[in-house]
Amino acid sequence: MQPTPEDYQATAGVDQDGRSPSPSPSGPDRHPASAPTDTQQSAPDERQVSPSFPRSDSTDVVLLSSDTVLFHVHASKLNAAAAPSAGQRTWASNTSTPILVPEPSPVLALMLHTVYATRPSSWASPLPTLIAAIDALVKYDIEPRRLVLPGTPIYGALQTHLPTDAFEVYVLAAHHGLEDLAVEASGQVLAHPVRDISDAAAVRMGATYLRRLYNLYNARKDALQKLLLQGPSFHAAAAAANGVNGFGAATGSGMLDGVTDFAAAPAAQSPVGCGPEGERRLSKAWRARTSSVAWNLRVDLEPDKLRRALEADGSVFDCLECEEAYEARVEEVVESWRNTKATI
Ligand SMILES: [Zn+2]
Hints:
By secondary structure, the protein is mainly α. It has 14 helices and four strands. A four-stranded mixed beta sheet has the order 1-3-2-4.
């Protein structure tokens, strides 16, 4: 039984023994100059054969790509890759008639590398080709989520596109339920504003993965806002009540000890405000540094950038304790932000 619909069967230009009747219709000149090394020709007077899938004693199915490159594969491999429920379509041994498939050779090569879990000679596959290959698997009852798994070459190929095209990878992963890849991509997709998701992308990724992405954006936005709202804690009022600033070697303990020679305490000579005035200064410094972060809130803000945005010039404080409280709060916020969940 032939595995594919009639339109996949070889027709024009392919005779029954699988050899080209003349070199011109399928000759090497017709092959795009940009063809990957997977589709090099084997001899000038024969149809091109994919060097990754050459004829061997064990191959028993011949596929012919739309750009007339032959791929020699194993029916058993194709059948094993197909979904268990797809019993109605099985690949049978047939080495005499190439089966014409609608995919061009770069796409077919990636499909077969996915099925075989093998690494192409070059992984520099453009993302659209990878997407086309994974999408096309479904037509052959092959579920991508059973094959595109962490550690497989095809998964690695998709990972290489995460730094530049995380959103496209996320949409692909979501569409096919590639959970690991979707989670990994989501961590790098935060720079893509949720409001910029097109209708087409939303439909393709489906309600579940769209909702999970939306929830991730919102959760991070809420988390950062909450962190920024809570300013540094003001130090104990006891020191402030003494009019002693934190730079003074003598502290309020002098008063508690009953020592009244305030003139001897250097801090008492310049009693700067760690009363209500100091507290106002502290919260004003916090508001000044957090307002721009909150105003231009980015859920993909890097922790180190957040630290730089919050750091205040020490000169705004004239109390060491206030300055230390401010710095401690910055560190708390940065660490909390670093630990805020960043994937779906
Ligand atoms: Zn203070």
